[in-house]
Design goal:
The chain has 167 residues and is of the alpha/beta class. It has five helices and six strands.
Length: 167
């Protein structure tokens, strides 16, 4: 069984950032990533300092390179269970592997809960977006509750999110 100072569950921007800082501090770090980031369908990112317009996969690849350059390890896999073990934890992976760590950091992020509208999931993060800047001067609609749909109409904006909140 492998022993680490920290196992980071989730290899998105938050997990890789944490792993980078810990690796630079000479901690033995493992990032376990299932490879399904929330923004995977998106062609590019917005609002990320110095990376505006960059494809999400490029950011993650750069983050992985930085983490490994400081001695951190990256493992493609899924943690299925965490068990308290002595002064730390044992992470059980889908393939049966067991990883031991003094600390665990969970950075698995969010999942979009989209309404049941035919075709929405296929278009999410490509043609259907949740950002005002991107949809300026384009045809758009608000998906959500009646009270949240009224806000863009009253303000004259075209901003909408699939979760019923306006931006």
């Amino acid at each position: 069984m492998n022993q680490y100072d920290v196992v980071v569950i989730g290899g998105g921007a938050a997990g890789l950032s944490a792993a980078l800082v810990l690796s630079r501090a000479r901690r033995k770090v493992l990032v376990v990533d299932a490879g399904s980031p929330r923004n995977a369908p998106a062609a590019h990112m917005h609002g990320y300092l110095s990376r505006d317009g960059m494809p999400p996969a490029e950011l993650l690849a750069a983050g992985r390179r930085e983490v490994t350059s400081y001695g951190g390890d990256i493992l493609d896999g899924t943690v299925t269970n965490l068990v308290a073990a002595g002064d730390g934890f044992t992470a059980l992976l889908a393939g049966g592997q067991r990883i031991s760590a003094r600390r665990v950091l969970v950075t698995t992020g969010l999942r979009d809960e989209l309404p049941d509208i035919p075709g929405l999931r296929d278009q999410w993060a490509r043609d259907v977006l949740c950002t005002a800047r991107t949809v300026t001067a384009t045809r758009s609609a608000t998906v959500g509750s009646a009270s949240s749909a009224a806000l863009p109409a009253r303000s004259g904006t075209r901003r909408s999110c699939g979760n019923g909140q306006t931006t």
